[in-house]
Design goal:
Strand order of the largest sheet: 1-2
Shape: globular
Mean pLDDT: 95
Low-confidence stretches: none
Distance between the termini: 23 Å
Order of helices and strands: EHEHEE
Structural class: alpha+beta
Largest sheet: 2 strands, parallel
Length: about 60
């Protein structure tokens, strides 16, 4: 579980962290749950859920 793991990082470091999470998830077959407000980070995820009005909904696309 990661809460805003790239929140205070520069763009280059953020991309490295996202890449590391992807490698862990795919190569080690691990589920990584992270919270982000950054669309670029969300786009790199395999599955995205959005919290709106106290309810989660899956983001398609």
């Amino acid at each position: 579980v990661a809460d805003e793991p790239t929140g205070n990082l520069d763009e280059t470091t953020s991309k490295e962290i996202v890449k590391l999470f992807q490698e862990i998830a795919h190569e080690q077959k691990k589920c990584i749950i992270l919270v982000t407000h950054e669309q670029e980070v969300a786009k790199a995820c395999d599955v995205v859920y959005e919290l709106k009005e106290r309810a989660f909904s899956k983001v398609e696309g």
